[in-house]
Write a structure and sequence with these properties.
Structural class: alpha+beta
GO molecular function: rRNA binding; structural constituent of ribosome
Strand content: 25-35%
Organism: Hildenbrandia rubra
Pfam families: Ribosomal_L9_C (PF03948), Ribosomal_L9_N (PF01281)
Distance between the termini: 91 Å
Helix content: 25-40%
Keywords: Plastid, Ribonucleoprotein, Ribosomal protein, RNA-binding, rRNA-binding
Shape: elongated
Protein name: 50S ribosomal protein L9, chloroplastic
Length: 156
């Protein structure tokens, strides 16, 4: 006895293999008794399939545009030479205060005009005057590295 299988389209991501928008074949009972009542999936009719393909195409175009804009921002950030910040230091060149991501965001906004969230900046420990590399996470795939030079202003 063969089980009747029907084609459905998934509305909610279930796991890494079965994601939203996927079209799969499942047994008739599983679809009718579980997936469709819980609105996890619906029957894949021709009109729904056309609509799904159109929305997937639009979503792919949007994600490609977003990726390209992030790539341009990455290129622009990496082209900026060295950001210079001034801080008061003592005789051992140790800072009074600390460098926070807000300082870097403000300086980048001034130079490039790009607004960056403070959660995107991965700060390294900056305790003395010198040059440091800071990583900016633009997206899950793209990062930009910028050099920051902290110059001392002597405290007298």
């Amino acid at each position: 006895m063969t089980k009747k299988k029907i084609r459905i389209i998934i509305h909610k991501t279930i796991n890494s293999k079965i994601q939203q928008g996927n079209i799969i074949f499942v047994s008739y009972g599983y679809a009718r008794n579980y997936l469709i009542p819980k609105q996890i999936a619906s029957l894949a009719t021709s009109s729904i399939l056309k609509q799904s393909y159109k929305s997937k195409k639009i979503q792919d175009q949007k994600s490609q545009q977003q990726y390209n804009s992030m790539r341009n921002i990455q290129h622009l950030l990496e082209q900026t030479n060295i950001l210079s910040l001034r801080r008061k230091v003592n005789q051992d060149y140790r800072f009074f205060g600390s460098i926070i991501s807000g300082n870097i965001i403000h300086k980048l906004l001034k130079i490039t005009g790009i607004i960056i969230d403070k959660k995107q900046i991965n700060l390294v420990s900056m305790r003395r005057a010198g040059t440091y590399m800071v990583r900016i996470q633009l997206s899950s795939e793209l990062t930009a590295n910028i050099n920051i030079q902290i110059m001392p202003t002597y405290y007298i």
